[in-house]
Write a structure and sequence with these properties.
Layout lengths: L29 H9 L2 H24 L3 H12 L5 H8 L3 H14 L2 E5 L7 E5 L1 H23 L3 H24 L1
Antiparallel strand pairs: 1-2
Helix pairs in contact: 2-6, 3-6
Length: about 180
Amino acid sequence: MTPGQLEPAMSDTSDTNAPDTPETGDGMRESDAGQRIQNAITYQLMRTVARINAQVSKRLRDNHQMSLAQWRILALLADQTCTTSAAIRRTVDIDKGQLSRLVSAMQTCGWIEVTEDPIDLRRQRLHLTPTGRRAHAAAEPMMRKRRELLESKLSPTEKKQLFAILAKINDAAEESLIDD
């Protein structure tokens, strides 16, 4: 066929051996590509996290007027796990701009105070206010119950295995970032 020539018209007879699903462009059927994606570890992890986060985000928003990211910051500060903005950023894995917006909103709510580190003036220290402690205490039972429900689906051995598997996946993800 030369350029500009039209392809011959398809006959009215159908090929009974042709699959029902269209091709993706690389010779693979859409159903095969969909199956390949669904079998990917990253897809399954993303899907699980998205479902868990969507459910809890709605409950936090409806019952406590806070986002999941705000809850995580409150919990870290309540446990005194992290007290600097840099440590929180690394632990929660968010960028500086997003953390800045969250901190600003949480200050507006009266949940946290921000002070300069007396040793390193470039660092910001975050502290829960009494209002922030009450907000954390109000949401904590719901969050604990949610965590316990999820964990109740696993035996202690399965939970240990899951954490070991997730650690391996995290290590592999870190390695792939280094190699890029």
